[in-house]
Amino acid sequence: MSFTEGCITFSEFFKTAYNAATLEPFASCLKEPSTNGDKEGMMKILMDIPYIENVRIIGTYTGKDDAKAAELYNKNRNAVAEKDMHEGDSRIINILTETLFTASVTSRLFLDALLDCAKYWYNLKVFVNCLRYCECMLALPAKFYDQTAKSKKDFLEYRDACMHLRNECSKKLKVSSSRRKMQYRKKNTNEGFSSEETSFGTNTATIPVVDGKRHAVLENCSDAVALQFDEKRGRHLVATRNIKAGSVLIVDRPFAFSTDKGALNRNCLNCHVTLILHDSVKIPCRSCRTVFFCSEKCRKEAWQTYHRYECSVFNSLYEGNSEQTQQTSHLLLAYRMTTIGVLSSNNGKVNNVEDDEIPLLNDNFLQFHATNENKKSNNLGITQIYSSLDYHTILELETHYADFEPKINLIRAIEAIFLAKCFAFVLSTIDVVCSKQTFLSLAIAMLHHLQAVNCNAYEIVENVYNKKTHVWEPRYVGGAIYPSVSLVNHSCYPNIVRHSYPSGIVVVRTLRFIGKDTEILDCYGPHFLSEGKFQRREYLWKKYRFLCACEACAQNWQYPLPEAMNYKCRACSKTIDIFPLDEIDIRHVLTTQCNTCKSKIDLKKLYNQFKKSVEKRVNAISKMYEGYYEQALPQLLEHMHFIDKFFVAPNIETIKTQQCIIQCYNQFGCTSQ
Hints:
globular, alpha+beta
């Protein structure tokens, strides 16, 4: 990526543009629109700065190199010989993969490498991998190779060879596939899971469905929750009935997602499956060498919906992001949100555009952002359908634009202009002319979504097993916008937990019992177990612009928690006293009564029940160490139910149990090596 005036990277653009904007008369002019939340006014002032106005993207990226591909392939031709493929040498598939990524898609060398990859896995009897390369070959358009009669004939021969391999693989996989499906059904009979099974990394993750009925208006939520609004808490979700621990409340698909820089070399760009193992299939982008996919299906889906509009500028979005950007993928996330919005239909739904089609820009999108018309829909999520894949829903996300300091808004605005210039350049390469008014709308939209990302983005993670600690540890893959999950407010002691599943899907489950009319609460980062009250409040104010008043903050809970626990009356839920954890203490006081409602409590009976329940947790941990998480989870949930019923939060037994429950769900979701 390069610019006129010698500006090559985003960092250089940002530095020069920021310095120019902080000089008079621009600095004084920018304060008023920033304070008033006037995105359009702010953008017009910035676009009048000579440097920003004159910068043009002339665009370069990591493209194909046939000469380098031929050198690589020929140098190692002997190793790639078919007789050596039976040995399963990882060096061979690495050579073929690198050749495949380096050669242009229209070259014969690309076809050679693609067919060799398919043969390699067929000879090793890894038929699933062979099929994926065959699918890639069979998806190639004939028009790529019909320049001459010979090239067309060669292409058809490659296709015939792949069709033969595909048919042979299908025959061999048919029986094993039927057996595998039966095993999955038996395995998940008691888990309440759907039949949708998706491969992710080294495991097959089965995506759950929401418990109970699906909500009539909140498309991705259970009818166990409802959307409410008040001035203090804004939009928030509450329980419509009593909800037990382990219930699935939300299964949300991302409106847009992005990949962190560190994950680009190990994860599929589209579904985020890990591809760092020697037995992984890597399908290249047909234009660049920067990204890869796990299948032809992922490649096509990514190209039609977003990668077509970022491929030629992709590298620049990861070059030296400003220090104020929380994650390297946040620029790309805002870019994709705008791309999807401007290319969506007038009803807000995403349009898929074929490779040779010129996309149409959404007039409603352009008009909305050009007029700075940030109107809220009071009925969205109440009587009007709330869909995570509808751009109208995305426009409802909170930005807190007017609440941030002018300096922060300026940083975001400069980032937005850079992104708009990138998108305008991409449009120009596919014969879409971007007028000055259209560019202004794009820049305003980019700014709007950058602010929304700051307040609403969630992490996509995969879990890696630590053999020493027997713990599944999260590894960040990227970021995503989940409109349904964004309806949930924060607590430093949350009652739900989120887990990533294939293709960026997030599943929200309850961590403990939630009573009817109780608010559903997530954790935005700071938890009372890891940070003090003032550190938590400072972080939440700077990032989200609210002063946390959750029960952990209001009562100043501190970790570590004492071993002693307070027990409560089952009748009125009032705290009674410190529960004696020693059987000797129980002998002195066998019964007691609640000071509030005078209900009697049999301490000896409660103590015996407590001992048996703790044994369930200990036994569950043993099963987890052995890898039997499905068997451990019901025991943990039973123990959690018992603790919720008889003891006051916070207590150490609840924390221990919740951490074990989270570990089980870590193993059920996205995992990797």
